[in-house]
Amino acid sequence: MPATVPRKRTPEELLQQAQAEEIYERRGKLKVFLGYASGVGKSFRMLDEGRRRYERGQDVVVGAIQPKTSPETDALLSNLKVIPLKNIDGVPVMDLEAILARHPAVCLVDGMAYDNPPGSKNPSRWQDVEELLEAGISVISSVNIQYIDELRVRVEKITHKSVKQTVPLSFLHSADEVVIVDAPPEMCMTRTGDPQNGDEGSSEAQKLSELREIALLLAADVVDRQLEAYLQRNGITQTFGAQERILVCVTPRANAAAMIESGRRNAERFHGDLTVAYVSQPEISADDQAALDRNLAIARDAQAHVELLDGEDPIDTILDFARERGITQIFVGHSAREKWWERLTGTPLDRLIRGANDIDVRVFPH
Amino acid sequence: MAERQPSGKLKIYLGYAAGVGKTYQMLEEAQEMKRQGRDIVIGYFEPHGRKDTIARTDGLENIPRRRIDYRGTVFEEMDTNAILARHPEVCVVDEFPHTNVPGSTRVKRWQDVQALLEAGIDVLTTMNIQHLESLNDQVWQITGIRVRETIPDWVMQQADQVVMVDLTPRALLNRLARGVVYSPEKAQKAIENFFQESTLVALRELALRQTAHEVEIRQVDYESPGFLAAPINGDEADPSATPRTSDRILIHVTGDPSTVMLIRRGKRVADYLHADCFAVAISAGSESRDAAEREALERHLNFARNLHIEARMLQGSDVAKTLVEFARLNGVTHLFLARPRQSQWPSAFRKTIVQQVVRLASDMQVIIAADRGRSHPSDRPPAPQ
User: Fold this and answer.
1) Distances (CA, A) of B42 to A164, A303, B56, B61, B328
2) Which residues does chain A have within 8 Å of residue B350's beta carbon, measured at their own beta carbons?
3) CA triple B374-B261-A305, angle to 5 deg
4) Mind listing the pLDDT tens digit for each residue in A283-337?
5) Which end of chain A is flanked by fewer CB atoms within 10 Å, N or C?
6) Tens digits of residue pLDDT in B228-276
7) DSSP labels for A20-65?
8) Mean local confidence (pLDDT), B358-373
């Protein structure tokens, strides 16, 4: 019994969904093989998928392939129809017009980050791919994470190589399917025919390992978005998470700096998500307001999503928000000072713990 | 706890469902190794009637399975002794989390694999993410299935390499529909149960994140706050050990079935924070507990030990006080407690353990773990091994 709850949809939502589905049906499907280095076998996987679809009777053509190929990829290529690249002033360019005219069901496109020469219809090859998709042609492609624009700075720090031509992350998110092509670093090092040993080899292995981690987490994020989109499309409210989502609840007097720091560290360790929330309270003193502002500034510095919540009952407000966001851990402060009536009725903390059922509650002393 | 480092190398092909291509990829690599001249055998292979996969075993030496008669039925298991006698360089072992039929030398196939590794044989093996012990509760939440055959996290951590075998859920569902994975009637049943798209997407995400974690903890100059911190307990500094911070996690073990989930959760957090992890049960003295309660406590402490958590029994009449004092003495930074059952929530005069501990523990974080298994009270840890 999966922990999912169907949600009723409004007529507007249903109409929007119908329109979205119609556009989706007409558009070609984009599938991307994602790798962390050259030599992991992205192009091979792309061509192998093309071969299998061709053997199942689909109309498959090769639109663009990397100039450097291996014997394995050559063998796959020999069985597929290829639309040759154009040569413009010595630059190989994918022949967009020829592919559109030929209009296959599926087109294989490697090297999505390539820039087209000046005077081309689109500045970059990935935009050509976009055009193929709009024309109803499905595209199978492959990309190396170092060519994802948003990752460029992080990857450059590891490789010390700068990349000029990139694909925006949003394009990857728009893909219908993203597949990670994973292999141990040693495989890339031997496959690229660049055997290294000693210190140089181990530092190369370390670099590749860091890139590999980035690629796996990027794929996990893409998958997480797809899961959310799927649940939304099907009107399901998510009550479980494959990703850790931490909610730190702050008040003016809470030991917020320690809680936020712990939240940040935990979110980082779990590669999770950090939110800091404050439930607004009436008649807050100027001192408290200043303290609260300081706490929220710390939260923003920690790159947390900051949320100001409104609600009659702070505990219910926190729990409702946490459920809606698929929070897996709530961090709260606890003061040893207890009001006399709370000994009888229970403290707000007791109520929070009691109501949190499927969420961890972490209590910080202060 | 020092692990005995086996001398063979272990490589795990990790997937998120049957049919993603783990065995296929493992056999491809086995073929490649054979071409490179390595002495490689198949120790165990599960064909599942998949033609493409079966074709990948061509030319590889196969060690015949051992036949075991159990209650009138003949079962076939991997013949570990025969492999040890043959002593190849590399051995292919499908379905790592498999439980052997009673009467086998070892309870679990992963234990057979340990024996091969200790003999210096490299092993290639396959498993799905849902079989990882620490994810058992999350997997139950996602799939509604309580997976019984699990691999302790420390076993996966011992692997030299963990490689993710990826396939999109849509492609997997296509394979299923084309009858590549299962026979048509079994496929139909699978689609109705486990193979729902949202389930597959969530499991895939778990597998990707776990692989990223496995990659991270194997990085040589892995930066961690406290990487250079002095070892606790006067242990010999072991450069190959996982980096430690000064975080120390203590799990409160009770006889309640929810303790199993608490132990998994505490251990998982400890692994991610690179913290030390302990578990204690508190007994008020032998007379005050009935035999069943004592048996449950022992079973839970053993469950923790199997996950490589240092676990022990303490004596004390005031549970909250004993627990917090022990934690304080041992420099515990995070104390894990189970959520009280609704019936245990107190009147004005009686407080739950959680309430008492939160009031006493003024110098540590107290984590009240989510109850993901409440509606399944039959959750018991596997029998001691």
Assistant:
1) 47, 50, 11, 6, 52
2) none
3) 90
4) 888 888 998 999 999 999 999 999 999 988 889 999 999 988 889 999 998 865 5
5) N
6) 333 333 343 444 444 445 789 999 999 988 899 999 999 999 988 889 9
7) HHHHHHHSPPEEEEEESSTTSSHHHHHHHHHHHHHHTT--EEEEE-
8) 86
B200 close to B172: Cβ distance less than 8 angstroms: yes
CB of B141 within 8 Å of a chain A CB? The answer is yes
CB burial of B52-91 (b: ≥16 within 10 Å; e: otherwise) equals ebeebbeebeebeebeeeeeeeebebbbbeebbeeebebb
Distances (CA, A) of B378 to B296, B305, B373, B381: 13, 21, 9, 10
Tell me the per-residue pLDDT of B181-205, one tens digit each, with 9 for 90 and over. 888 778 777 777 777 888 899 899 9
Give the whole-angstrom CA distance, residue A324 versus residue A327.
8
Note the pLDDT tens digit of each residue in B118-158: 999 999 999 999 999 999 988 888 888 889 999 999 999 99
- What residue in B sits closest to A234 (Cα-Cα)? B198
Give the separation between CA A330 and CA B134, rounded to whole angstroms.
20
For residue A135, give the DSSP letter: T
Rounded to 10 deg, the angle between the A348-355 and A314-324 helix axes is: 30
H or E stretch covering B377? none
A324 membership: H or E segment, kind and range: helix A314-324
- Is ipTM strictly over 0.90? no
Q: Which two tokens stand for residue A131?
A: 């055009």
In chain A, positions 151-180, which contact chain B (CB-CB < 8 Å)?
A: 176-180
Nearest to A28 by CA among A127, A104, A125: A104
Structure tokens given for B87: 């002593």
Which residues 6+ apart lie within 8 Å of B215 measured at CB? A209, A212, A213, A216, B162
Across chain A, where does the E strand assignment appear? 4-6, 30-35, 60-64, 81-82, 86-88, 91-93, 106-109, 138-144, 177-180, 236-238, 245-249, 273-279, 305-309, 329-334, 360-365
Beta bridge partners of B311: B279
Asked if residues A263 and A274 have their Cβ atoms less than 8 Å apart, the reply is yes
pTM of the full structure = 0.81
CB neighbours of residue A152 within 10 Å: 16
Contact A1 B144 (CB under 8 A): yes
Q: How far is CA B113 from CA B125, B132, B206, in A?
A: 9, 16, 25
The amino acid sitting at A323 is R
Contact B198 A269 (CB under 8 A): no
Residue B200 contacts residue B16 (beta carbons within 8 Å)? yes
Residue B315, Cβ density class (10 Å: 0-12 exposed, 13-18 middle, ≥19 buried): exposed
**Cα B133 to Cα A80: distance, rounded to the nearest angstrom:** 45
Distance from CA of A213 to the nearest CA of B (A): 5
